[in-house]
Amino acid sequence: MKELFQKILCPIDPNDEMATSLDVACSLVEGPDTLVCLLYVIPVVLVGALAPGLDPLPISESEARAALEKIAREHLAGKVRYEIYTQIGGEPANAILKAVEELGVDSVVMPTHGRKGIGRLILGSVAERVVRESPRPVLTVRAAAAGDGRGPR
Fold first, then answer.
1. 37-55 tens-digit pLDDT
2. 3-class SS at 66?
3. How far apart are CA 2 and CA 34, in angstroms?
4. What pLDDT is recorded for position 26?
5. From CA 87, how far away is CA 9, in angstroms rounded?
6. d(Cα 152, Cα 6) in Å, to the nearest integer?
7. What secondary structure does DSSP assign to 39-66, as a single string?
8. 87 has which bridge partners?
C-alpha cells in the first residue's frame, strides 16, 4: 500500500527554536520510503546607504547547512530519511511555494509564530500565505511560548 505522504517539506529557521514541526513531520512518516525535506530560506540583509560595510548574509550557506544538519540529526536521525535544502534570499513564502513545486512534495509541515493583532499586520504571516497558496496540504505547528507549560499546540 502506498503511503499517504512520501515527501514532506519542512521549512525551518535554525534560529527560531521551532523544530517542533520536525517532530510532527516525523510522526506523519508511514514507511521507509518517506523523505523529509528541510528547507531554510537564508535572509539577505538589505545593504547600501543605510548600512555600509554590513555583510548582506547574516549566515553563510555552509553554516546554514551545518545548522540544519545538526537539527536533523537531533530530530530525525535514525527515524526517517531526510534531505537538506537552502535558498539564499527572496521572500520566504515565495521560496517555500517554489520548493513545493520543484521538489514535488506531497505535503508541507511548517512552524508558525502565532502572531496576532498589530504584529501580524506589520510582519505578515509566511505560514498563512503558504496555507492559502500551496497546491499541497499544509499543516502548521505552533510551539508554545517558552515556559508556559503547554508544550506544542
1. 999 998 876 555 455 655 6
2. helix
3. 10
4. 85
5. 14
6. 24
7. EEEE-----SSSSTT--S-SS-HHHHHH
8. 41
